[in-house]
Amino acid sequence: MTVFLALGIAGLVLVLVSLVAGDVLDGALDALEADWIGSAAIGGFVSAFGFGGAAADAADAPWPVSVAVALGAGLLVGWFAWWLTRLVKEGPSDGTISISDTVGQVGKVVTAIPGDGYGVIRVVVGGHTVTYNARANTPIEAGDEVNVIGVVSPTAVNVAAVWKSPS
């Protein structure tokens, strides 16, 4: 039972060190990493193996049964830790918002847009408020809503007034 408990504690220490100090000790745990497995999966396996074996041994199971229970618990927790870390590493991340993401969005005019020049609009894209220069074919007053219909340059868009329903 002592061997199982020692393995369980060692696995927990490995998980804690890899989670807490992994960034601080950059590269120190790279020997435990590979493309297909990480230190969290190894630590999860070792700790579940140890504590699963200790639990089976405490229930007076014979040694071969304790080892089988330990192996099953270790494989289950190790696989789950591998799956979670892979899910996090390969998960999508928010990309940088570009001006082309505003096309098709509704914005609000901040500075009036003259028929022959530029004004300023504010648009919410992906939860982020962005401000761009804007031009339109017809004058649009500040406070009006507009549809972004195209990109003129990296800092400017074409807009059209939103149709107002008769009240």
UniProtKB/TrEMBL annotation:
GO terms for molecular function: peptidase activity. The keyword Transmembrane applies. InterPro entries: NA-bd_OB-fold. GO terms for biological process: proteolysis. The chain crosses the membrane at residues 37-56, 63-84. It comes from the Bacteria. Keywords: Hydrolase, Membrane, Protease, Transmembrane, Transmembrane helix. This is Membrane protein implicated in regulation of membrane protease activity. It comes from Nocardioides thalensis.
